[in-house]
Design a protein that fits this description.
7 strands, Growth Hormone, Chain: A, three-stranded antiparallel beta sheet, single chain, 23 helices, globular, mainly alpha, 504 residues, two-stranded antiparallel sheet, 6% strand
């Protein structure tokens, strides 16, 4: 059978002649050293299958270039094949998860203040009555273990779909509010959907589809929180000003329903499909890693009897005191320290903006120094920053504290998931992550109580911030004492996907 000479970046290879009726139905192209080919001309009686990222110049090996060109110019029919490139499916999956976590957080938390004024004006509720709905976030922590265990058994796609619909229903029903308890009930629906729409799909999908680069991808995906914080409040404000607060909530609900439908078609977690997609796109070296990662790790029972589980839980719970114990108090603390209202708002916005870069940086760092060490650095930076901020100096020193705190703060959201994956694997990630979230109820409810009571007594958030710094120290020590955990089935995993230095 005649052969063809194939040149790729200067290297020759051989491909087979075939009859015209044997041409494949599709072609894949990529890049060579010289750039991207937009089309390729082939004689009708030759074909070659190009793996992803390969572009070839083809000529019959028995003919010279001149002879080949002469035949072509003499009228031999030419077939032009456009580039048909399918991107790696992990990218649209990461985008869906990015939107799921980002929009959920942006709508429920960042945009909360946009609705406070209209609701108080219409129903005569106090700020305390409105804010009490935030305390219902404990529902997320209580449901997290069950949601995580369910996702381990039936898969994350149905869990994510149902969770997004729960959040959507919480928004779509709010225009029908007439009593305060309605407000609390519909807020509970939103928080009930949080575990399955945010941290669970983030951990599952990034861990499975990006086993070698999960740190940097995790940072990019969790940056969705910042995206939601930047986009959802202005959207709500614009709709409220133009129409009504009811229309704004309906818009939120419709967006979440649409995202739930998109998730059904995009999310894939089947090991065989993931492996096939990796091989199709030239990521064959990651296929074995992904398959091993999906099966490696500890069960919930094994984790509970491992002392490292409790050390890591203490460390992460302590770290999350930053959310309700520091972040939510900063705007008021800055103003009480002497900042003008606009400057105080700008300072908080700067911290939020730094969060994107911080997530990306710490996500990448976790691949090199482990997520546990990266978390210790993140919490240490936050502790130093809070220590400076607590002094209440509205001068240059305060801005130094804001900068240091912002450096460490943003990366924590990605690192929490990465630490759990790194220590306990993907085998029963959902269940183990759910238990971690139960522990975080302590920080979610305890931190605002500490901050509020001490502020009422002292007139400042300085004392409560110092207590948070002390809690940070406890968390840092706990994480430093934790050690890598031996994971079953981790022998086929590279890099930081699993650690096997020691057992419990």
């Amino acid at each position: 059978m005649p052969k063809l000479a194939m040149t790729r970046d200067g290297a020759d290879a051989t491909v087979t002649h075939a009859e015209s009726n044997q041409r494949p139905a599709f072609w894949e192209f990529g890049k060579n050293a010289g750039g991207v080919y937009s089309q390729l001309e082939l004689h009708r009686d030759y074909f070659v299958y190009f793996p992803a990222r390969v572009v070839a110049r083809i000529k019959p090996s028995s003919e010279s270039n001149a002879e080949s060109n002469a035949k072509t110019n003499a009228g031999k029919r030419i077939m032009s094949i456009p580039v048909i490139g399918r991107i790696y499916r992990g990218y649209p999956i990461a985008l869906v998860v990015f939107l799921s976590t980002g929009l959920s957080v942006g709508m429920a938390q960042y945009a909360f203040g946009e609705f406070a004024g209209p609701l108080k004006e219409e129903f005569g509720w106090t700020q305390t009555q409105l804010n009490l709905s935030l305390a219902f976030s404990f529902i997320s922590g209580l449901l997290a273990p069950f949601v995580g265990s369910l996702s381990d058994r039936v898969g994350i796609k149905p869990v994510m779909f149902a969770s997004l619909l729960l959040i959507a229903s919480g928004f779509l029903l709010r225009p029908f509010i007439s009593e305060l308890w309605h407000w609390y009930l519909f807020s509970s629906l939103v928080y009930a959907g949080f575990p399955g729409a945010t941290i669970m799909p983030v951990g599952k999908m990034v861990g499975l589809w990006f086993p070698k680069t999960r740190g940097r991808v995790m940072g990019a995906v969790v940056a969705g929180n910042n995206f939601g914080g930047v986009t959802m409040p202005p959207l709500a404000a614009a709709i409220i000003a133009a129409v009504s607060w009811e229309a704004a909530y309906v818009t939120y609900g419709v967006i979440m329903v649409a995202l739930a439908i998109v998730a059904v078609f995009i999310i894939v977690e089947d090991e065989n499909k993931i492996e096939a997609e990796m091989k199709r796109t030239g990521r064959g070296d990651q296929a074995q890693i992904a398959r091993a990662a999906a099966r490696a790790g500890l069960t919930v029972r094994q984790a509970l009897v491992n002392h490292n589980f409790w050390l890591i839980m203490i460390g992460l719970v302590a770290a999350t005191f930053t959310y309700q114990g520091v972040l939510t108090q900063l705007r008021q603390h800055f103003e009480e320290s002497g900042f003008a209202p606009a400057v105080a708002t700008s300072a908080v916005s700067i911290i939020a903006g730094m969060g994107i870069a911080s997530k990306l940086a710490f996500g990448r760092a976790s691949e090199r120094i482990t997520a546990r060490i990266a978390t210790i650095i993140s919490v240490s930076l936050q502790g130093i920053g809070v220590l400076i901020i607590a002094q209440g100096d509205a001068g240059v020193l305060m801005w130094v504290g804001i900068f240091i705190f912002g450096l460490g703060f943003g990366g924590l959201g990605a690192l929490i998931v990465l630490v759990v994956q790194e220590a306990f694997g993907m085998k029963e990630f959902g269940g183990i992550m759910g238990l971690m979230q139960v522990g975080m109820i302590a920080s979610g409810t305890g931190a605002p109580l500490i901050a509020g009571s001490l502020h009422d007594k002292t007139g400042s958030f300085g004392s409560s911030m110092l207590i948070v710094v002390a809690i940070f120290v406890v968390g840092i020590v706990a994480l430093a004492l934790a050690r890598p955990v031996k994971q079953e089935g981790a022998s086929g995993i590279d890099g930081n996907s699993a650690q096997s230095d020691s057992t419990n």
